[in-house]
């Protein structure tokens, strides 16, 4: 799971030319929490998934969920 969620976050950062701080602000979570998810120290929850979907409606939610399992 760590590689998958790390890859998902990295793809979003690159695709939208964002810093981790900017992404964390868009999904309404602290930068520290985003980093913990990225490192695999914390599991992404509904807040993270919902935040991504709201900030980036073009992201396929089903694909996103599959990539973070």
From TrEMBL:
Q: Which InterPro entries match?
A: Cro/C1-type_HTH, Lambda_DNA-bd_dom_sf
In terms of SUPFAM superfamilies, this protein maps to:
lambda repressor-like DNA-binding domains (SSF47413)
According to the entry, every stretch annotated as the HTH cro/C1-type domain falls at 9-64
Q: Which Gene3D superfamilies match?
A: lambda repressor-like DNA-binding domains (1.10.260.40)
What this protein is called in its record is: Transcriptional regulator with XRE-family HTH domain
- Organism expressing this protein natively: Thermoanaerobacterium butyriciformans
